[in-house]
Structure formats: C-alpha cells, structure tokens
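Below is how a single chain appears once it has passed through the pipeline. First comes the sequence as given, then the structure the pipeline wrote out for it. We keep one example in the README because the format questions we get most often are answered faster by looking than by reading.
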Amino acid sequence: RMAYSSYWLVATGVFLLLEAFGLPGIGFLFAGLAALVTAAAIELGFIGSEALILQLALFSIVTAISAMLLWRKLKSWRMNPNAPHYSNIVGTEAVTVEGLSGSKLGTVRWSGTLMSARLADPHHAPISPGTTVRITTLDGSVLVVIPA
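Resulting structure:
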C-alpha cells in the first residue's frame, strides 16, 4: 500500500502542472506548495500517515497562508508591464535573414529562432542578409538591433 506522503507528492505534481500548463492564476501553485509541505510533515513524523483530517487541515492552512503571503507579490511580478522581459536576449547577437533598412521590419535568427527585428537607428545604412547584429532592446516582440 502506498504511503499517504506519496499521495501528497503526486498531488504536488498535479497542482504544479495545472499551474504551469493549465490554469495559471487560480492558485494551484499555493496548493502545490501546501501538498509538498504536507508530504514533508508526514515523512518527518510530525503528522501520522493515517491522520487524514490533520493532513487536510495542514494542507488547507498552508494553502491559505501561502496565498496570503505570496498572491500580491506574484501577481505584481506577472503583471508588471515595466518588468524586463527576455533580458537574456539583450546584448546577444543574431544573424539577419532578411535585410534591415530604415524603420522597415526584417527577420533575424536568434538562438535558432526567427524573429522580427528593426534597426535602432533608422538612418543607418541598410544591413544585408547574413550580417551579424547585436540586440540592444525589445520593442514588444520586435528585436531592436545595431551592427555587431
């Protein structure tokens, strides 16, 4: 027979998968954390493996406390329009697939992915395909580039 802590570990995985791939924003992250704490409490002997009511109480309390402590912080982190997005792209190099000229959009290959790009200085001379460029910033989903 499987120990109750194993059920809580399975519940942890299910809650975290639901948060990651299914229904983010509903609070499955907090339930996943609570299930993990409950499994740990059972394994460490703080709660008996047959004390189902106590396990459910701990799960509920930890879910509520983690939601109260983390909800606003996570929400502001997810929704902050000023938060830097894709900061790992800025400063790296890409190769033009379509030429870039003026303020017209072109295409570059960055890390194996084709992405839209435009010149940081629209008055710069056109850049031909196959040229390496450096990414200076992002404008929405458009890479803003300069010659490397």
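The chain has a mean pLDDT of 86.

See the next section for the split statistics.
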